[in-house]
Amino acid sequence: SNQDSFDNVNGETQFYFNTDNSPCTSANMAILYQGRANCDGMRGIGDYINHRGYRTTELYNQLIYGYGGISAGFTFEQYKAQIDSSQGVLLHFVNEFTGFTHTMYGYGYDDFGQILVYDGISPNGQNPGFLSWGGYYFLGGQWLAHYGVTVINLDPAPEPATVAFFFLGIVFILKTKN
Question: Residue 112's pLDDT band (boundaries 50, 70, 90)?
Answer without folding.
Answer: confident
